[in-house]
Design goal:
It is built from 25 helices and 20 strands. The protein is an alpha/beta fold. It has 4 domains: 80 residues, HPr-like (Histidine-containing Protein, Chain: A), CATH 3.30.1340.10; 131 residues, 3-Layer(bba) Sandwich (Glucose Oxidase, domain 1); 106 residues, Enzyme I, Chain A, domain 2 (Orthogonal Bundle), CATH 1.10.274.10; 268 residues, TIM Barrel (Alpha-Beta Barrel). A hairpin with a 4-residue loop joins strand 11 and strand 12.
Length: 648
C-alpha cells in the first residue's frame, strides 16, 4: 500500500466541480484509492462519498492506494489536491459584481419589497412565469424475488436514459464551459457507485425501482443537508434533481420545462435544478426568484455566468407567488416585489436602464487599445492557463497574453509532456494572438504543486523551497525540452519567455547558457527556431534589490504581485489568519514595485504587471505612473481596466 498526506490547496476545497474532476482522475487508475480527512474516509472514486467528506482548503488529507499503479495514483491525486486552481472555476464564488461590470446602486423599492438571498446581481421586471412542476405520484409496490432482476434492469435503462438527457442538455449551444462542468457534476452523481448501490439494495429488499430511487435520493440528500458547510448543503439540490430525473424516466413521464417560456419573463419557482435551467434559452430569461436555494447553488452560479438577475431563498407563500402577474427584483440586494405599483416599476426600469448604459459603456472598450490622456499606450493582456481560454480572452479584447502558465500542461497527468506536444501548444497560442505578444512563463512548480515525473522531497515551506527556475536549472531533462519547444514556437514572431522565481542574476545567465545549447540542438535536428524576448518575474525581494543588475541581462520585467506581496509582507497568501497583512497596496509592496520599475526605466526595458492587482482600478494609476506599460489579468477584467487607463 502507498500512503501520502498532503495539505489541500484547492480553492474552497473539494466542492462539486473539483470533486468531479478528482473522481475522474482517480478512476483513470486501476488501484483502489481511499482519501481520509478529519477522521473519516471515502473511496476516491465516489463523488457522493467524496463531497460528504467535506474536504476544505487547508485541511490535511491522506491518500492510500493499493494496486499495480498505486504510486502513480497517489502522486497524481496528491498533485491535484495541492493545486489551488485544480477546480478550474470557482463554483462557490459569492454573489458579487463581476470584474467586467460596474456595481450598481440597489433601486429603492419602497415598502413593497421583500428580501431573499442575493444570488446574481442586476435589476429585472417582467411577466411572471410560474414553474412549479407537479409532485411525482409514486405508488410503492412490493417486488417479488423473481421480478427483482427485471426491476434492476428497468432502473439501469432509466439511468442510461437520464444520463443521455443530461449530456444532450450539456451540448446546447447556449451553454458556457462552466455550465457544462455543472452538468458533468450531475452526471457524476447519477453514475456514482454509492447512489447506484443504494438503489440496487432497495430493489433487492423488495422495493420497486421508482421507490428505491426515491428513498436512496432522499437519504443521500439528507446527508448533505446535515452538513455545516453552506456549499455542501446546497448539493442536496443536485441529488434531488438527479433523483427526480431518473424517476421520471422510470415512469415514462416528461417534466415541466422552461423551454417555452416567453422572452423577458421572470421565473418564479419553489426550486430550479441546474438541468432545468440548462434546457431553457438562457438569453430569454429576465430574472429568477425561488423560494429555496442559496448563492452557492448551481442555479445561482449559472445565473451569474449569464448575467441573469436572481434572488433565491425568497420566503413567500407559494400561492402568493403563483398569483403574481409581474415580478420585480434586485439581485444585488435580494429584494423582490410581487406586482409592483407604478412608482416602484418606474424605479426598477430606471435602474435597468442605468445598468444597460454601464454595460454598453464597458463593451465599447473591448476593441479599444487604450492610451492615457497624455498619449501613453498601455497593453491590457490576459492571464491564461490553457488553449481553451483563448476565445474568452479575445472576446474580452485582450491585447495578447501577459502570462501563460505552462504548469497546467504538466499537472493532472501521468507523464511529462514531450517537446513536440509543448511546441504545438505554444505555437497555437502564439498564432491565436499574433501579432500581439504572448508571454509564456517557464515551468513554475514546486513542493506546493508537484507533477508526475519529478520527485519533490517534503519541504516544510514549499513557497521558499525548490521551485520555479531553481528546480528547472537542476533538472535540464525537464527544462531543456520546454526551452526547445519555446524556441520552435518563436518562429511565429511574438513569443516572449518569462522566468519565475528569479533571485540572482546568475540564474538568468545560467538559463541563457541552456538556451544557447538548445539552439545548437535544434540546428542539429533541423528544427526552425526564432528570436524572442527574455524576461523575469519580479516576485522575490532579492529580485527587487538587484533589479538594476538583472535588468542588464533581460528584455523585460513582469511583476507577480501575488507572490511579491506574500514575500515582502512575510504573510502566506493561503493563510486566512494573516490575510490582513497580504495587501498589495501596503506601502512596503508599492515601494518594491517602484524600485523595480525605476530599474527597468533606467535600463531601457519594459515592465508589466501580471498579478491579480493588475486589474484593480485603485492601483492601475500607480502602475502607469511608475512606467508600467503592460497589465495582464483575467479576461473578465479587461474592459474595465481599459476604461481606467483612458481616464489617467
Amino acid at each position: 500500500m502507498i500512503e501520502r498526506s498532503v495539505v489541500v490547496r484547492v480553492h474552497d476545497g473539494l466542492h462539486a466541480r473539483p470533486a468531479t474532476q478528482f473522481v475522474k482522475l482517480a478512476k483513470s487508475f486501476a488501484s483502489e484509492v481511499e482519501i481520509r480527512c478529519n477522521g473519516r474516509g471515502a473511496s476516491a472514486k465516489s463523488a457522493v462519498k467524496l463531497m460528504l467528506l467535506g474536504v476544505k482548503e487547508n485541511d490535511e488529507a491522506t491518500l492510500r492506494a493499493e494496486g499495480t499503479d498505486a504510486a502513480d495514483a497517489v502522486s497524481a491525486l496528491a498533485t491535484f489536491l495541492q493545486t489551488p486552481d485544480a477546480g478550474d472555476i470557482d463554483l462557490a464564488a459569492p454573489a458579487a459584481p463581476t470584474a467586467a461590470k460596474a456595481p450598481t446602486a440597489a433601486p429603492d423599492m419602497g415598502h413593497a419589497g421583500e428580501r431573499g438571498v442575493a444570488a446574481s446581481e442586476g435589476t429585472a421586471i417582467g411577466p411572471a412565469f410560474a414553474f412549479f412542476p407537479a409532485a411525482l405520484d409514486i405508488r410503492p409496490r412490493t417486488v417479488a424475488l423473481g421480478e427483482m432482476e427485471a426491476e434492476r434492469l428497468r432502473y439501469t435503462q432509466a439511468l442510461a436514459s437520464t444520463v443521455h438527457s443530461f449530456r444532450e442538455a450539456k451540448a446546447r449551444p447556449s451553454l458556457k464551459r462552466d455550465d457544462a462542468a455543472i452538468i458533468d457534476a450531475l452526471v457524476e452523481v447519477a453514475e456514482d457507485a454509492e447512489f447506484i448501490g443504494a438503489v440496487e439494495t432497495g430493489i433487492r429488499a423488495g422495493r420497486d425501482a421508482p421507490s428505491a430511487v426515491q428513498e436512496a435520493g432522499r437519504t443521500i440528500a439528507a446527508s448533505f443537508e446535515a452538513l455545516a458547510d453552506p456549499y455542501l448543503r446546497a448539493r442536496a439540490e443536485d441529488i434531488r434533481s438527479v433523483t427526480r430525473a431518473i424517476i421520471l424516466a422510470l415512469l415514462d413521464m416528461v417534466d415541466a420545462t422552461l423551454a417555452d417560456m416567453p422572452k423577458g419573463s421572470v421565473i418564479i419557482a419553489d426550486e430550479i435544478a441546474a438541468l432545468d435551467l440548462a434546457k431553457a434559452t438562457l438569453a430569454d430569461i429576465g430574472g429568477i426568484v425561488c423560494r429555496k436555494g442559496a448563492a452557492t447553488s448551481h442555479v445561482a452560479i449559472m445565473a451569474r455566468a449569464h448575467g441573469i438577475p436572481a434572488v433565491l431563498g425568497f420566503p413567500a407563500d407559494p400561492a402568493r407567488m403563483k398569483a403574481a402577474r409581474t415580478i420585480g427584483l434586485d439581485g444585488a440586494s435580494g429584494e423582490v416585489v410581487l406586482d409592483p405599483d407604478s412608482e416602484t416599476a418606474a424605479r426598477l426600469r430606471g435602474a435597468i436602464a442605468r445598468e444597460a448604459e454601464q454595460r454598453t459603456a464597458l463593451d465599447a472598450y473591448r476593441a479599444v487599445e487604450p492610451t492615457t490622456r497624455d498619449g501613453r499606450r498601455i497593453e491590457i493582456a490576459a492571464n491564461l492557463g490553457s488553449l481553451a481560454e483563448i476565445e474568452t480572452a479575445r472576446q474580452a479584447g485582450a491585447m495578447g497574453v501577459g502570462l501563460f502558465r505552462t504548469e497546467f500542461l504538466f499537472m493532472e497527468r501521468r507523464a511529462l509532456p514531450g517537446e513536440d506536444e509543448q511546441s504545438e501548444t505554444y505555437t497555437a497560442l502564439a498564432k491565436a494572438f499574433a501579432p500581439h505578444p504572448v508571454v509564456i512563463r517557464t515551468l513554475d512548480i514546486g513542493g506546493d504543486k508537484p507533477v508526475a515525473g519529478i520527485d519533490f522531497e517534503h519541504e516544510d515551506n514549499p513557497f521558499l523551497g525548490w521551485r520555479g527556475v531553481r528546480m528547472c536549472l537542476e533538472r535540464p531533462d525537464v527544462f531543456k525540452p520546454q526551452l526547445r519547444a519555446l524556441l520552435r514556437a518563436s518562429v511565429v514572431g511574438n513569443v516572449k519567455i518569462l522566468l519565475p522565481m528569479i533571485a540572482d542574476v546568475g540564474e538568468v545567465r545560467a538559463v541563457r547558457a541552456l538556451i544557447d545549447e538548445c539552439r545548437a540542438e535544434l540546428d542539429a535536428a533541423g528544427h526552425a527556431h526564432g528570436a524572442f524576448e527574455l524576461g523575469v518575474m519580479i516576485e522575490t525581494p532579492a529580485a527587487v534589490f538587484v533589479a538594476d543588475e538583472i535588468a542588464g541581462e533581460v528584455d523585460f520585467f513582469s511583476v507577480g504581485t501575488n507572490d511579491l506581496t506574500q514575500y515582502v509582507m512575510a504573510a502566506d497568501r493561503l493563510n486566512p489568519r494573516v490575510a490582513k497583512l497580504n495587501r498589495t497596496e501596503h506601502p512596503a509592496v508599492l515601494a518594491a514595485i517602484r524600485m523595480a520599475a525605476r530599474a527597468a526605466r533606467e535600463a531601457g526595458i519594459w515592465i508589466g504587471v501580471c498579478g491579480e492587482a493588475a486589474a484593480r482600478p485603485d492601483l492601475i494609476p500607480f502602475f502607469v505612473e511608475n512606467g508600467v506599460s503592460e497589465l495582464s489579468m483575467s479576461p473578465a477584467s479587461i474592459p474595465r481596466a481599459k476604461k481606467c487607463v483612458t481616464e489617467i
